[in-house]
Amino acid sequence: MPSPRPLLIAGSIATDHLMTFQGKFEDSLVVEQLHKLSVSFLVDDLEIRRGGVAPNMCFGLGRLGLHPVLVGAAGEDFGDYRSWLERHGVDCSHVRISETKHTARFVCTTDSTMAQFASFYPGAMAEARHIELAPIVQAVGEPEYVLIGADDPDGMLRHTDECRQRGYAFIADPSQQLAFGEGDLIRRLVDGAALLFSNEYESHLIEQKTGWSADEVLSRVGVQVTTLGADGVRVRRRGKDDIVLPAAKDVRAVEPTGVGDAFRAGFLAALAWDVGLERAAQVGCVLAAYVVETVGTQEYSFTAEQFLGRLEHSYGPEAAADVRAHLS
Ligand SMILES: Nc1ncnc2c1ncn2[C@@H]1O[C@H](COP(=O)(O)OP(=O)(O)OP(=O)(O)O)[C@@H](O)[C@H]1O
Ligand SMILES: [Mg+2]
């Protein structure tokens, strides 16, 4: 088997710091004193989770035996996270390390009523706009795809434009940035993509913001993959029947964070194995199942046999047979 061409995965690199407060924020807020607001909550739990869309996807690809190239910007504090990703097969040698900013961080405290105080510090992520793909490609070889996930918007645009200029096939995966971006930005991120990923809500947002109809969106990308949550996934191509698949069977949903990223990792791994779009969607759904069943986005593991067993249980023996040769 020829070794697959490299996959470049660009997107946010971040950690989530999640705290829980046993009381109610409400009890500490004095409405008449809000202009002098200064409160502190004694929290009894701190969880630090690895996140960012690009490492989430890279981790999933690594779990399936691939060696994706992480493209993004982080801070000096990236060391531990780097080691973790490298242990799982991810090439982190091209991550840009900021000299002045920390890695992006989401800090959130949730109280007993699920009310939240949250802040997002983009930090080093804003330096994604200074990353040029060409030197990375020179080092790792011509990419099969460059995936451009949610990141610093100027960075996303720069990567997309560079892909168009240099003729790298790119995958548009704007996800969270769709809520903030204007039509013009979104049109530039999507137009000409080999593949467009989104969930169903985001697919409507893309149409609304770009002003393109569903068919027009499809006419501007090679393949459109829309995930439907617990209902599975739909894959559309021009001039061919849609592929619509249910989610993996017997999933015990615990916590959904990162499920979309895991789906993409499975899908891209299967594309690299060249087993077709239907298998790609199936592998994506099975990898996503592992994430929904665990707390955190990079905490799941499985043996090749377990993965193949789940693939067979959900999609039949032929699906497992086609994938078997690629999982070791
Ligand atoms: N409850 C569930 N049970 C089984 N599979 C699920 C469930 N939720 C999601 N999935 C799988 O994960 C895929 C992606 O889910 P979804 O459409 O919710 O992504 P998303 O909205 O981008 O998620 P997020 O952005 O929160 O990571 C689905 O296509 C499906 O295969
Ligand atoms: Mg998503």
Automatic annotation (TrEMBL):
The keyword Kinase applies. Pfam families: PfkB. InterPro entries: PfkB_Carbo_kinase, PfkB_dom, Ribokinase-like. One of its GO terms (molecular function) is kinase activity. The keyword Metal-binding does not apply. Coiled coil: none annotated. Residues 34-299 form the Carbohydrate kinase PfkB domain. Keywords: Kinase, Transferase. Belongs to the carbohydrate kinase PfkB family. PANTHER family: ADENOSINE KINASE, HEXOKINASE FAMILY MEMBER. This is Carbohydrate kinase family protein.
